[in-house]
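::Amino acid chain::
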Amino acid sequence: MGLKIGQHDIEVKQRAARKFLEAGDKVKLTARFKGREMARPDLGQVVLMKFFEGLADIAIIEQAPSMTGRDMSLVINLSKQASALSKQSDLKEKENAQD
C-alpha cells in the first residue's frame, strides 16, 4: 500500500486482513515509498499504525515496523485472547453440530 492510501481502501484491506487473522494466519503489512517519500519514513509508520488500529481488538504486533529498501513492513498476528475465544466458539459449534 502507498502512503497516500484512502480511508476506504484501508477499511477494505482491514476486512481482508481480519479474515486471514481469524483463519489463524499472520498478516504482513507493507508500505511502499516512491521518490521523495523516502525522506519521510515517519509517514509510512503512521499509515501502518493507522491500519493496525482497526485490527487492535483481535491482533498484536509481532514484528515492529522496519525499513527494508523502499518498503516498510509490519507483521501482525492474532492475539492470544482472540484465539482462545475463537477456539471456544469452534468447540461450541462442533457440539451443536453433533446434537
Summary: The chain has a mean pLDDT of 87.
